[in-house]
Amino acid sequence: MAPARVRGGACPEPNLGVMTETSGADSVFDISDAELGEVERSVALALGRRSVEGLHVLGFGEAGLALAWPGDQPRLVLKRLLSTEEEAESHHLFDLIDRYRAAVMPHVAVAPTETRLITDDDGRRVPYMVQKLYAADALLENVLATASPDPEHPALVALRDAALGALVDGRQAIDSQPSNFAWENETLVFFDIGTPFLYDADGPILEFGAMLDTMPALLRPLVRREIGKVNAHLGTPFGNLEHAALGLTRIGQDRWLDAAVLCFNERLEQPLDVATIEARGATFRRQLRFFKQVMRVQRAWTTRVRRRRYDFFITDSWTGEIL
User: Fold this and answer.
1) Structural domain boundaries of the chain?
2) Can you list the pairs that 295-300 forms with residues at least 24 positions away whose Cβ atoms lie under 8 Å?
3) CB 8 within 8 A of CB 200
């Protein structure tokens, strides 16, 4: 779930491989602002139809969208983050993404990424991330799908070590779900930097900004609290690797759970077990189902009462179904 604001701290100079662009000039990726604007128009139409027919969708976040571009011979991934009427919020998010990449780069390779900000036809500021499109057989979830479960599989070991290595003094974490990685040339590559998990003494260094716009105002304090609990759990060794194991069930690779538990427990003081992971997964899915029901209430109010576009897809992140 993408945050929208930075709370405190200075942004370091951008690192090689990540650029923050608002004009499309000197882009390291060959997609212009005009082309990105056409993509956004297609997304706006899809939002109105509640259908992604005609879009080359690679996947959904809890409120975001990843598209392959161009549609005929894709070479890039366009990740649509949460739109906002406040340009400053998008720039704060871009700053946090830069900080996050710098923080996790010593522990895991990060996909080359460019952040771009465009204005849609309604005047909203829409942030995108542009990334390299990895071959399907290089995606970690597909590597695991074609391999036999093995606690010593080098990709699984690399995932474990990257997840634990990034937990430096409780200041940062990576979203260690296998679907967030590629395995290219025997190297683990992390590409989900659009949801930066950075922490200070008070907890996650983020506010939920535009994410809360997906929910009714009366329920936003509850949603903020529940998401905060999930993020705090992600910032612990046990919680982070439990999240990684739970991610196996989200991609239909439950057969890897026993191997993952053996692999992960080699580095954990508090051991994981399959039954606990499965129970946690059932609870997490119920929570997500509740959040999606709440989002549907907000969508109805936004579209029927306010007569405005609801700017988010509501999906079942296990099945990819649009709700």
Assistant:
1) 18-132, 136-190+236-295
2) 295/214, 295/215, 296/323, 297/216, 298/214, 298/215, 298/216
3) yes
Do residues 152 and 256 lie in contact, with contact meaning Cβ atoms separated by under 8 Å? no
**Residue range 216-252, pLDDT digits in tens:** 888 878 877 877 777 788 889 999 999 999 999 989 9
* Amino acid letter, residue 286: R
Q: Which two tokens stand for residue 208?
A: 């939920």
Q: Which residues contact 304 (CB under 8 A, 6 or more apart)?
A: none
Q: Is 82 left (phi over 0), alpha (psi -120 to 50) or beta?
A: beta
| Spatial separation of the C-alpha atoms in residues 104 and 99, rounded to whole Å | 9
Structure tokens at 305: 């009462």
Instruction: For the chain, give the percent of residues with pLDDT over 90.
Output: 46
Tell me the pLDDT band of 25, cut-offs 50, 70 and 90.
very low
- Interval 199-216: pLDDT, tens: 776 666 655 556 677 888
Instruction: Check if CATH label 3.30.200.20 holds for domain 18-132.
Output: yes
Angle between helices 237-250 and 257-265 (to 10 degrees): 160
Residue 70 preceded by cis peptide, ω within 30? yes
Residues 153, 147: contact at Cβ < 8 Å? Answer: yes
